[in-house]
Write the structure tokens for this entry.
Amino acid sequence: MKYHGQADFRHGQTPLAAVVLVNLGTPQAPTATAVRRYLAEFLADPRVIELPRLLWRLILHGVILRIRPARSARAYQKVWTERGSPLLFHSRDLAEGVQRQLREKGHEAVEVLLAMRYGAPALSAVLDQLSQRNLRRLLVVPLYPQYSGTTTGSVFDVVARQLQRWRWVPELHFVSDYYGEPGYAGLLADRVRASWQSNGRGQHLLFSFHGIPERYLRAGDPYYCQCLATARATAEQLQLDAGSWSVSFQSRVGRERWLHPYTDQELVRLARTGVTSIDVICPAFAVDCLETIEEISIGERERFLAAGGERFHYIPALNAEPDHIGFLAELVRKQTAHWPEWMPADPLSAIALQQSAERHAAARPAFDQDAKS
């Protein structure tokens, strides 16, 4: 294996400290071609689909990538804006906001970047760029409040694969989840209260989380438990009665049993039991995206109303709102509290190393001539 580093590395240069916020990713355009490229990368990840590789490759390329891209492209067209994909621009705004707040608090030496697990800006490419800038301390924050091997675990896989190829591996810190961080449930509760104040309060509050296959739970994935804990903590903040809120799971695909109850079935059940007015929040998503806007706010709204409901209100994700930016900036500050504001090598050591490097550079022509002879 060849270990990568900077060519003609200059010892004693100022090291870099970086924070990389990582989200899932998005196609680059709402077209079948762009969606096919994105889905091919996403669905090929063994963390996402745990099936024998040869079998899954045949299904993916023989069936799914022939049918699904056109349908998904039509869904993306419903949520695409002048700024492009909501997931991308909300995530970019979030990263820029965290950077701005850190600098306002005096943490000017820490650089905040955005990366995507699938699509662009690719996490692997962002890390490669940092490797050429003398990165010495790295904090990776997947923008998934609850841990799952399908999401956070996959981010770690990329980080590990990249760093194992580096000659000088930086100090690494990795946030596995943050649903239990002080103030997080309060953020969600505040978002619900603000919605109630602006749009009125429904009879029922539904917490809809992205689903995963149920067998992942049985194999030890903590996602389900962390989702329930998130909803329970938020309901407590809101002082909700037991019967006025519930949890469901959305976005299932295929015939395999996923975490349940399923959001589409739960909405129908609620409508048929007399709930005519409902609020829905999706706490597994840091920012709004296809799954919250098109699937929930558009598709599931229609389902609820068709089942007899009269009012459906989707409560937006935390997005790049000031309180969310402040929460993540504080999370970064806690994780990097031991980092000095700048991280030079020991001054005497740095000078000695640089002098040695300069002597080596001066002697190199003679060395190269001797090597040839």
The radius of gyration is 24 Å. The beta strands are 16-25, 110-118, 135-142, 171-174, 204-210, 245-250, 277-281, 311-315. The chain has two domains: 16-180+322-335, 184-315. Confidence is low (pLDDT under 50) at residues 342-350.
